[in-house]
Every structure is written in C-alpha cells, then in structure tokens.
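Chain X:
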Amino acid sequence: MKYGLIGEKLGHSFSKIIHEQLADYTYDLMPLSKEAFPGFMEARQFCAINVTIPYKEAVLPFLDQIDRSAEAIGAVNTIVNKNGKLFGYNTDYSGFRYMLENNRINISGKKVLILGKGGAAKAIFAVVRDMNATEILTVYYRPHPDTITYEKCYAKHTDAQIIINTTPVGMYPEIEKTPICLDDFSKLEAVVDVIYNPLYTQLIIDAKKRNIPAVGGLEMLVAQAKYAADIFLDTRMNDQATQRIYQSMKQERSNLSLIGMSGCGKTTLGRKVAQYLKKEFIDVDAEIVKKIGMPIQTFFSAHGEDAFRELETQTIRGLADKNNLVISTGGGAILNERNIDLLRMNGHIIWIKRDLENLELGKGRPLAPNLDAVTKLYETRLPLYKKYAEAVIENNTSDLDNTTLALAQAFKNLVE
C-alpha cells in the first residue's frame, strides 16, 4: 500500500472516495486488528497514511518526528514516510476548525461540552480552546481523570451553549442511538457531531427539531482529507476543493423521500425523478407487499391498521441507513414521527401536494375507498404534511416533465 487509511473497522469509511477525487493516487482501506497493528507500523511499507479509531494515539511510539501541533494535541491521524522515517501530523484539527468557521459556529466566550475523549476529541478540544471558549468540559461514560460523567453533566451543566459529539454513538449501523438527551439544555446555540454516516445523526435531528443550528461530520471529513492530501503531496490545494467534493458527496449520497396523500402521484413522480437524479427508486408500500405476500388491503382487513403501521416503520428503518435513493412513502407514514426521523437521517423530505379533487381514489387503498373517506384523511394529515415537509411540489397538472424538473431542483436546493 502506498496511500491509504488504517483503523480497526473501516467498512463505513468514505475516505477512499474523497482522496481519489482530491489527487491522482490510489487510496486503500486497510483494516488492522490490534494484533496486526504493531507489525504494520514496524514494517513501514507505505508512502503516507491516515489513521482512525482506535490508533490515533497508539501510533505515537512508532513515529520518528511529530508535528508540534499534533504533539500538543496528543494524537496523530496523518503519517508520511520520508526515506524510512515516519512523520506524524493531525489534520482533524484543521478539518474541524474549517467546519466550524464555514458554518459560522461561534465558540468564543461559550461553555462547550465535548462528548468522548478519544483521538478526535483531543484535536477538537484544542480547536475549541484556541477559539477562546470560556469553559470546556469533556463528558465520558464512566469516571475518568479530567472528565465528567453524563450524570454530573445533566445535574450541573445543562447551561452549556455548544455540544460536540466525538463518540461513535449514533453511527451506522446503530443509527437510532443518541449520546445525550437535549431536553434540559435550554441555552444551546449549536450542536456538532463528527459522525458522517448517517449524514444526519439522531443527535443532529433532535437539535434541528429544537431549531438549534446543527452540523454533521461529513464536511469535517472532507476538509481533513484535503489537508492530509496536502501533506501527502507537499502541496496546497485551494479550499474550494473541499466544498466541491463535499457538495458532490451530499448530492450523491442524500436520499429524496416523498410524502403526500395516497393518489397524489408520489410513485409516478418518484420513478421519473429517480431516473433524472440517477438514484434508485423504492416504493415503501411495494416493499411491504413483498414482505407480507398479500395486498395491503387484505393485510389491513386481517390484522388492522396498528399492525400495518408497525410494519411500515420497520420497512422505513430498513431503508434509512441506505444512500442514493428516492423513497415514495405511504400516505400515512407521517402519522409516526419516528418514520420522519429515520427518513431525515440520510436525506430530505418533499411533500407532493395535490388538491383534494384531483386525488386518485380506490385502487386497493384501504383508507381511501371514496371521496368522503379521503376528505377526512386529508383534513387530519394536512397539518403533518406541512410540519414535516422541507419543500412542497404542486402536482395538479398532467405536465410530468416540468413537475419532475421542479422536484429535482427543489431536492438539489435542500442538499446545498
């Protein structure tokens, strides 16, 4: 391996995709067990590598020289082999600072909680300190020197203004977990999560529900990779490279989820916009039919709506950690807020709005057999469509091509 990434588990890593867009080299992912790690470092058979969990501190004894800022942080994520000597650097610092500054998150004078105490946390602590935070507290799951427990955090420090998660809690595949409950943090001004898979963790979603500015870790990942590539190649790329790749990855990886009444055209529009955006189309109701082996109307009659809604949430959960999809939901998916959270983790939600008189009726829709039933459903669900939609597309004409283009543009605007 000439260039690449080492870590214990790398199945979720986007680093290969990013580095091979940044520079003209092959970038390999090399998972290393704790037993294999020392031998790899001693062999020094690489030109330059990045380092991730759990080796950002473990690499230090193998290095011949450590950059001053990385030494002060106490963790290294970038190593260059110069004529057999290993030089260590930390680009997590630069990447995280870039993300804060680019998103106008002001640290100066603020009380900051950092969740976790690993290698990334050390770099982030240094950034927050250098950006003049008034108070910095490291929160750890058990008693440990220079940290506070979550119990003490909830009891004494709910006046924090910034929360930064550096733990893996909420990362794929356990996307429904969150490292901290935000309910009592009444003075929060921003939440930052260094996790980038999913794009928006449950912590980020919880913050946005409270209208708190929140940022996920993909931008930091791209920025630190850019700074690492600069070190690898002894060059200096423009920061525009970071934004170009970041926006490209968001567009490619983000899902588009469609909500709206049954008969509003979600499936037809979904197929067309999926083709336009080069994404895979998934119809939630069709996925449910595959699972149950019968029409939804038959399942409703046999098991009732509650059983169907539970199955619907299970199906959406199975899609939530996937990427590059257009997802057409059933008309009642918005009745369970958990479905909305799951759909938001890797994408954006657009309401396909069609006037009541234009909705298709019947066709096996158990809750919409006639106009009276549809009218009652429409009145009940309308506030929820308004609440959860990030954008609205009117679908009251037969001009599918222009409606598809409008839908695609609305999605692109949300991703940007």
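Chain Y:
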Amino acid sequence: MGYRYFAANVAEQLGIAGYVKNLPDGRVEAYAIGTVDQLCNFADELRRGPTLAGVTDVSEVQAEILPDYRSRFSVAFT
C-alpha cells in the first residue's frame, strides 16, 4: 500500500477529515481536521507509515480549517 492510501485509510479509521497529496519535490502533504487526540494518533501513524515506506521526517504545523475539507478525507491527485 502506498503512503497516500495508507494515510487515507488511517484518517478514515480515526474519523479525520482533510486530504493527502504528493508534492512536486517528492514529499507528501497531509492536511487533517480532527480533535487533538485524533490528530496525535494520526501523526503517530504517519511517522510509522506503511510497511515498505521509508518515512524520514514528519513535520506538523497548525493551519486554518478549510471548509472544503471538513466532511471527508480524500487523496488528491495534483
């Protein structure tokens, strides 16, 4: 399973809204909306990653809540 689909699966299990997408430089961006506990668990899982992923770093920044992403979690293809 790829990293984006791993992240989407974890987000769905945790009840998190938002998105995950690849960035042009090879990094992955995840935007997540949830409770503090949900987001902490999500970050822990992202650090672990799927079995074959080589996760080297996970950075967190606080962001404004974007209304377009409040209802579900999606994999973006941009």
